[in-house]
Design a protein that fits this description.
The chain has 166 residues and is an alpha+beta fold. The protein is built from five helices and seven strands, in the order αααβββββββαα.
């Protein structure tokens, strides 16, 4: 009886580790294919939150920074998309205009600063949709190269994250 319980525990542990790994490493693929509400960007969230788990293809000019915060850097176009941690996660995007845009986890524009002169920019003057399209175009090659999972757990991913991205 003890050997059966031990084997069941080992099988359960191995299965749990595989499911965790599958959901993390394929999170961008799953986020891209999940139902989402208008104004929700789960693939951007999953890409940055799980950058150290997902496939990071070699793309000319694109570099990945895993030191502390997670960042995707396009050295050719002077763009950077990543996250910062304060009391909660925020996402940061900066472009060649040297403006740093800070977003909440729900991708609401929270703050913008022009770095060279440390000028706070009125966020009502910024076209948020245009800015998010620019971020999406920047990371699109990475998102498009995410492999299809060997075992597709889309249903489980949707179950876990459906309320977060409504």
């Amino acid at each position: 009886m003890g050997k059966i319980i031990t084997k069941l525990l080992i099988i359960t542990l191995i299965l749990s580790i595989y499911i965790f790994y599958n959901l993390k490493s394929n999170s961008v693929y799953y986020a891209k294919n999940m139902p989402k509400g208008e104004g929700q960007y789960p693939e951007l969230v999953m890409l940055i939150d799980n950058l150290d788990w997902v496939y990071t293809p070699d793309i000319e000019g694109i570099k990945y920074d895993f030191d502390g915060t997670k960042n995707i850097i396009n050295a050719l176009e002077f763009k950077r998309f990543g996250n910062i941690y304060s009391d909660y996660t925020e996402y940061v995007y900066s472009n060649r205009d040297d403006i740093v845009h800070r977003f909440t986890k729900g991708f609401d524009l929270k703050h913008a600063t022009r770095l060279r002169v440390m000028e706070v920019i009125d966020i009502s003057s910024i076209d948020k949709n245009k800015l998010i399209k620019e971020i999406e175009e920047f990371v699109k090659p990475i998102i498009d190269q995410q492999p299809k999972p060997f075992i597709n757990l889309q249903w489980l991913f949707n179950l876990i994250y459906q309320d977060e991205f409504k």
